[in-house]
Amino acid sequence: xxxxxxxxxxxxxxxxxxxxxxxxxxxxxxxxxxxxxxxxxxxxxxxxxxxxxxxxxxxxxxxxxxxxxxxxxxxxxxxxxxxxxxxxxxxxxxxxxxxxxxxxxxxxxxxxxxxxxxxxxxxxxxxxxxxxxxxxxxxxxxxxxxxxxxxxxxxxxxxxxxxxxxxxxxxxxxxxxxxxxxxxxxxxxxxxxxxxxxxxxxxxxxxxxxxxxxxxxxxxxxxxxxxxxxxxxxxxxxxxxxxxxxxxxxxxxxx
Length: 255
Prior knowledge:
ten-stranded mixed β-sheet; 31% strand; globular; 255 residues; alpha+beta; Aminopeptidase; 36% helix
C-alpha cells in the first residue's frame, strides 16, 4: 500500500493506492484501486478493472505469459535500433518531468485532443517522485525519443500511469518506423517488468482494462502480455468537520 499525505488550508489530503482497509484519519482521502468488500460498500465507489502480471520469476518465466505474437515483437525489438532508459524517483528532475509533459501533450494533440490537465499532472508526478514512488521510462528508436511511460509503485506493485508513443519518428518521412515503435513499446514494458522485479516487486499493473470502443484496442494490447483480470474500487472519502466544510465551500464557489 502506498500512502501520500499533504496538508493544505489546514486539511489533510491523502492519496492511498491499493488499500486493503479504510483509513481512520480525518481529511479528504482518495482511494485508488482499493481492495476488498469494505470499499465496494462505501458511497461513491466506482469499479475499476485492470490486468496484473506476476513478475516474480526469472526473465523467461515472465515472458512465458506473453502471447506468441507479443513475445516475437519483444524479441525482435531487442535486435532493432532500440534503446531503453528507466529512471527512478531519485534520478527524475523537474526538467525531465517537463520534457515528458511536453511529449505527452504532443501525443494527445496528434489525436486532436487537448491536454487540459497538464498542471495537475505536473503536481501529481512531482508528488509521487518526492515520495520515492515514481519511475519515468523512455524508449529511443534510432536515437530519437519515441515512447514515454510513467509508473507509480509501492513495495509490491508497479502500476502504469501514462503511456505515450509517436506515430512515427519526426525524421521518418515515409513512416517506415511505425512498426519498430510498436515493437519498442512492448519491449519497454517488458524491460520495466524486469526493472521492478529486480527491485523486489511481484506485480505489474496495467492501469486499467476497459471494454469501451475507444479503449478496446489498448486493452487487447495489454491482454497480449497475459496478465490476470482484477477488479478494485476507486472512491473518495471525506472525514471530519474541517474536510466537510471545505467540500461545502468548494461546491458553493463552483455554482
